[in-house]
């Protein structure tokens, strides 16, 4: 009996079918994983020829890493961690409270708020660059400038429409009977939110955690607008600066690219269970 594939086709068996699957899987592995493996190998190869693609170097060395450290890569990496740590914490905090208000509370204009949140996701960074730079140079009400500080890279990412929408839609699926039961037991509003609603949102927290981390970590336009000194550069911005320097070898750039890629991979591995549950929860509830 033949099994059907995801496309509704019948899965073939036999030696030729197994050989075809092996070839297909090998090609896909080379296409997607090959460049990443070449990046890691090239970062720790003493002499790197950018015209050659190799996964089997003659020997490995930390020379490129030492030269990258001399170029201040660790300082740029620290700036990136500060920005992503503070920015992600604020983003998650804003998302869970905004999602709770939009999903569990009824107030006039809630639909308009959702439309505005959605509209913020439709504008590219290039369009927002000029008004954002003006706001950061003179914040309304307080009239202070965040240009030339890491705070200028943190505050704009504290609220992200995608995270707010994810939390809003996920919290709408939580039965209201749970809140009513907790209130009958004497729980207050904050206790209901903290002990009843929020623990059920762990899958959604994994989703916004991974996407939010990646969004903030990969920011290039925002640091470019805010940083006024190389000491304030984050790693993506520093890589662009080093790329234009003829004295920086390709090995140093590969080390920087490897360090820029590694935290995103580790963040996904740490949150992958919550991430997968968050992606599949809608299908299961449906």
Give me some keywords for this one.
about 0% strand; about 70% helix; mainly alpha; about 290 residues; 13 helices; globular
Helix and strand element order: HHHHHHHHHHHHH
What about the largest sheet?
none
Beta content comes to under 5%
Counting DSSP H or I runs of 4 or more residues, the number of helices is 13
Q: What is the first-to-last residue Cα distance?
A: 30 Å
From the alpha-carbon coordinates, what is the Rg to the nearest angstrom? 24 Å
Number of beta-strand segments: 0
Shape type: globular
- The secondary structure category is mainly alpha
Mean pLDDT: 83
In the predicted model, the low-confidence regions spanning at least 5 consecutive residues are none
Helical content class? 55-70%
């Amino acid at each position: 009996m033949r099994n059907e594939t995801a496309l509704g086709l019948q899965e073939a068996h036999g030696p030729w079918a197994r050989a075809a699957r092996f070839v297909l899987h090998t090609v896909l592995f080379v296409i997607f994983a090959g460049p990443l493996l070449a990046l890691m190998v090239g970062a720790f190869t003493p002499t790197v020829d950018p015209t050659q693609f190799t996964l089997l170097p003659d020997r490995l060395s930390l020379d490129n890493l030492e030269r990258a450290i001399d170029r201040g890569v660790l300082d740029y990496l620290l700036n990136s961690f500060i920005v992503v740590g503070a920015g992600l914490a604020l983003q998650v905090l804003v998302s869970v409270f905004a999602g709770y208000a939009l999903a569990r509370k009824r107030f006039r204009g809630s639909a308009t708020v959702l439309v505005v949140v959605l509209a913020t996701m439709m504008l590219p960074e290039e369009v927002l660059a000029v008004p954002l730079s003006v706001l950061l140079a003179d914040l309304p009400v307080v009239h202070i400038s965040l240009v030339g500080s890491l705070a200028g890279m943190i505050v704009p990412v504290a609220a992200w429409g995608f995270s707010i929408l994810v939390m809003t839609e996920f919290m709408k699926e939580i039965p209201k009977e749970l809140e009513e039961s907790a209130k009958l037991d004497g729980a207050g509003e904050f206790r209901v939110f903290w002990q009843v609603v929020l623990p059920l949102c762990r899958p959604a927290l994994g989703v916004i955690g991974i996407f939010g981390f990646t969004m903030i970590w990969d920011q290039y336009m925002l640091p470019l607008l805010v940083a006024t000194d190389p000491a304030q550069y984050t790693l993506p911005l520093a890589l662009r600066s080093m790329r234009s320097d003829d004295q920086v070898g390709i090995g140093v750039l590969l080390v920087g690219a490897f360090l820029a890629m590694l935290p995103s991979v580790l963040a996904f591995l740490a949150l992958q269970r919550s991430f997968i549950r968050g992606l599949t929860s809608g299908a299961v509830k449906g």
